[in-house]
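Q: My collaborator sent me two sequences in one message, no labels, and asked for predicted structures for both. Can we handle them in order? The first one she listed is below.
A: Yes, handling them in the order given. First sequence, followed by its structure tokens:
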Amino acid sequence: MTRALLALFGWLALVSASAPVPVATGLIMGDTLPRSLSEFRFFVDGIGHTPNDRVIGYDLNTPLFSDYAAKNRFVYVPEGETARYTETGVLEFPVGSALIKSFGYPADFRDPDSPVRWIETRVLLRREDGWVALPYIWNEDGTDAVLARAGRRLPANWIDADGERQEISYRVPNQNQCKTCHARDGEIALIGPSARNLNNGRRLAEWVDWSILDHAPDNAPRVPRWDDESDGTLVERANAYLDVNCAHCHNAAGSASNSGLFLTYEESNPVTRGLLKRPVAAGRGSGGFDFDIEPGHPERSILLFRMQASDPGIAMPELGRELLHEEGIALIRRYIAALDDQG
């Protein structure tokens, strides 16, 4: 055998040895609940920073508030399959897909290079009979995350953007709590990855080019960034915020459907959106006020009252936060103050 052939075989062996093993699509589609996140092979490193083939990182124009946690989001669509574009609601992902989202806190939010302590990674697995939601908690050295179906409370602390020390008892949701937030018509559904919330002017076209998405029109809808005053009107930004933070329950098929308060971005009925709408049930949750939203009067609006509440029996959202989202509250206060009776 010539030296050239020997060299070629050696190179091929090196490439083969160093090439990442593909994502374990069989585990996504199967009926087991893998104990370790690493078993899925979503990442080629332990800490979950370097994605495997067809594991694509993304962000959202307006994300869900989660106690100021930093988030890394990834999507996986198996080879030969694509997600289906839909103009309203979330994209339709094929069996074998996965959504992966990690939560953690930089030691100091003022320092862009500050190390992040990753606490948990939540995965949504698309199986033949629907989506399965699983929470995984990272070990101390960040080499793997272990399934925690019962959830857990973990201490978290950081220095915020104003230089103040923050500390909370961070809640990793249990599997049933995952189902509560992701429920639609009794089934688990996605919240964030809609075309309008993914659309940053280029992402949808990129996903089509990468064979992750089947197609996307040039004029695909888009929601603004809630915290960017140069991106959309006050009403549009407030509606985007309410859509992501409230409408996963407050929609006609969600767990709060009996409230009659629907906050999806496309909802156009002012009363259904809460304007001069009386609550279905009174009690402590109403704060003694008459309307979900009283135009021009945030101080008398039940929606804002519950956003500002810390009492677990009153606070909205019911799950997913320990802290008040001061910036989000300020946005909704401005929005209600600027409304007239017609919205």
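Q: And the one she listed second?
A: Here it is, processed independently of the first:
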Amino acid sequence: MNAPLPPASPNPLAPIAHDMLEVDGVIAHRLTSSVPLVAQISQYIIAAGGKRLRPALLLLICGALGYKGSERFNLAAVVEFIHTATLLHDDVVDESTLRRGRATANESFGNPASVLVGDFLYSRAFQMMVSAGSMRIMEILSDATNVIAEGEVLQLMNMHDASLDEEGYLRVIRSKTAKLFEASARLGAVLAGAPPATETACATYGQALGTAFQIIDDVLDYDGVAAEMGKNLGDDLREGKSTLPLIAAMQRGTLEQSTLIRQAIEQGSTEHLEDIVAIVRNTGALDVARKAAAAEAQRAIDAISNLPINQHTASLLQLAAQLLERRH
């Protein structure tokens, strides 16, 4: 970019506020079902809100590249449905009880209903993506969904494995979390008819942003406030997940401290949560993780350096920068 960007808005999603209302309309319309429980649970989790970053990312890329067709609303809803389906299944696998400040769907409606409604959302997403009439779009979304599923299984295999290193950790989150960010950004470029180099740049931005997002999410498990986060502190530890803050703390702590964390991961125990949080904070492990997130955020920023200069591009840059300040 040789010219200065337009002034950034305090809210990077402001330029797509109206677009998001259109997406909400598509979501509400496509959640209809003749089976009352399907609609009830779908509405329950969608109504819980959330950041809607994946559809927002697709809309921002479309805006940055000048695409104004209505298909962007349909595909933004598709990626939100896929994301919501993964949340329903995740919460069952993780036995989670709290998400976004209220009871999870599985806590309220039971595991079988949550799994089956997750299946409904996946299949509805595929019905909707067919309407785009593009094999390329089908390819991107079907590949992403498959990689996400592999990431879920990989994470399950790594549960209670205290020997997981940073490379293994990143492999999981790039499959499980960052892949849908990557697909969302790539879809925006495909809709805009962007050349291959631009499509790749947008996909790189999405992957890097998604990776930074998850690292910060894992940091907040040891540096956040439950009321702000909308989930229980220490959930990752209870589930036996070896996240970057724990990996760094084991590397930097004393033998006694590392042993305590290792045992907690292997046993899925939060009995010594306060001690472990103190170790994570005192060893500088959170700084290690935040630096890793900052590097990913910078990779995202660098990836879109040649995008057209407009308010949507400014928002994409701001989104990456603000991610590091996230508190929930």
